Amino acid sequence: MVPPEEDEFQISAIGNLPVDVAGCQPGIIYSLPVTSVDSVDSKRRIDVVGAAIVRRDNNSGSSDDSPSATAPLLMLCAQRAQKRTYPGMWEFPGGKIEPGETPQQALAREISEELHLTVNVGEKITTTEHEYAEFVARLTTFWCTIADPDAQPVNTEFAALRWLPPAQIHTLDWLPADIPAVHLIQAAHTSE
């Protein structure tokens, strides 16, 4: 085998390379100019988590302050601040998974930092991947409840926080990575 020139490298799989691969055979090593590969997958990838935080609306006309399993369900939606990328768009609060963290640990940490809440992280709703202009986000969204039913979120970084019934969350302008979870949540709660 001939070693590649300095401006070339060898690949053993074609994958999603933006080259004409007609006639290429699997298992054969092909040399491509580095410039052809630099544009491939050059966007940084980030793993993030989002919290679909739900609570019962105990202010919906009940005569006492006790939580009711029949009270309408509300979901916390967060609007991105003007200083952030994609300002004004809505998202489930959360953030990046740090090295050594599980998605659930990252979500609990992010919600504590962003909203000063302790949450119980429940089942995964979905994992989606979306390519933004600057990066590719792999978002895993989880159901969450607030550990202390009397606790209220403290807004430390969002333009707005809004509690909405799941059937109404589609009315907001969501970040693209969150939209699949929005649809799944709405489908699961169409009767509420």
The largest sheet, given as strand count, sense and whether it forms a barrel, is: 7 strands, mixed
Distance between the termini: 66 Å
Q: SSE string, helix = H, strand = E?
A: EEHEEEEHEEEH
Tell me, rounded to a whole number, the average pLDDT. 79
CATH superfamily of the largest domain: Nucleoside Triphosphate Pyrophosphohydrolase
Helical amount: 10-25%
Number of strands: 9
CATH class of the largest domain, anyone? Alpha Beta
Q: Name the structural class.
A: alpha+beta
Tell me which CATH architecture of the largest domain applies here: Alpha-Beta Complex
Radius of gyration: 22 Å
- Note the beta-strand portion: 25-35%
Number of domains: 2
Cα shape: globular
Which residues form runs of ≥5 with pLDDT under 50?
1-40, 61-67
CATH topology description of the largest domain: Nucleoside Triphosphate Pyrophosphohydrolase
Count of individual helical segments:
3
